[in-house]
Amino acid sequence: MALKLFNTLSRSVEVFAPLDPAGKAVGMYCCGPTVHDAAHIGNFRTFVFADLTRRYLEFKGHSVRHVMNITDVEDKIIAKVRAAKVPLREYTARHEATFFADLDALGCLRPHATPRATEFIPDIVALIEKLIARGIAYQAADKSVYFSIDKYRGCGCVYGQLVKLNFDEQRVGERVKSDEYAKESVADFALWKARVPEDGDVFWPSPWGEGRPGWHIECSAMSMKLLGAGFDLHLGGEDLIFPHHEDEIAQSEGAGVQPAGRRFVKHWMHGAHLLVEGKKMSKSLGNFFVLKDLTAKGFTGREIRYALLQAHYRETFNFTIEGLNSARTALARIDECLGKLREIAGNTEAKADPALLNAFTAALDEDLNVSGAWGAVFEWVRDTNRRLAENALTPPQAASALAAWNTVDAVLGVGAAPETEAPAELLALLDQRQAARKAKDFKRADAIREELKTKGWVIEDTPKGPRLKRL
Ligand code: AMP
Ligand code: ZN
Q: Which of 138, 163, 378, 429 has its CA 20 to 30 A from that of 422?
């Protein structure tokens, strides 16, 4: 069966056909994090969506090259580096490390390449030079280099491929230096930002003087360098459609580097945003979560991943603590069923039972209908549990069921129940309880025991001392 995906470019669901004549290789780029702080749970919805897309393409037999950039220089980062008074790399390295640890905790496969913008300055400069040579970019009196929307359109190119823009009511050619500007504004945007005192030590030499790249050109340069000037798939959150992705198309196609008849990107996919407890995340509302806020509440990366994979990627998703509790219950159901199958199967090996695979594939082939895929999984769990209760499964049948689960889990990526250690925050609480007991403060010791319990862990006494075990 063919995989169909919604393409933001055509605003319709299309059969996904890679550019590779053999239909096998797929180049996929997803805009990565801006490492100015820890990524939040909304960002991770987008990265888990990219991970699901990549894993499903691999499941369908494609060999995917997954590239995700690290935006390590842009307006927000520079402001924070200045405030923190540390070198740029020292500042971004810290947040980059947290990002990768979080990505691993969420069971996301590492992209094959994670280029940093600051390591691609020569490629960025070369791309801007091409645009200047074609008369589409110009240096303004403020010494910055801008992309000319007017000139680009004059070459017969369309600005406004992903969004509809009204050119009649706008003063085309007005300039913006900022990386993010208002929806529907048709503005010449900065490709190279001339150095200003506020940039501190963050600047590079260029043919136009010292400065730094704009955010949009970073992604054009890195994606084309690593995947070729025309590639298959570009992903990101819906907020990036305009201006970021529209500008990526304008820069990349404006440079005229694609082979004849090829576009910069064939297929654009955008994930809808995530709300927390029904509201847009914000620090003032107290509903702003980074991963460690949730693990401190006792949830595992596996449970968070499961919750993030509940809704279709084009639907706004309401992330709730209740949803995380449901994720825990649902995963426990799967784990219990798998545990019984393992007991029966022993070391027997068998081919995957096709029933689950067929229903699972039928759902995901329809624009990654992940809720349909989970529906197939739980139908299978119900059916398997019934057969287990009837003692109707032989070891080869149990092994075949397990093989089917392992195949679908290569896409879902929730894995087996981990015999994990409790998070560091909870281990610290366990130490505090021991200290309270030593000090004969049994009230405090009991209160800590209760707190651990509400976070899903019980204290188990072992010959080696107390340890934490999942409820
Ligand atoms: P940033 O680090 O801000 O550049 O964002 C990284 C990725 O997260 C981008 O693809 C954004 O579109 C995406 N993103 C930002 N906020 C949310 C949200 N609330 N829900 C889902 N994705 C988001
Ligand atoms: Zn990007």
A: 378
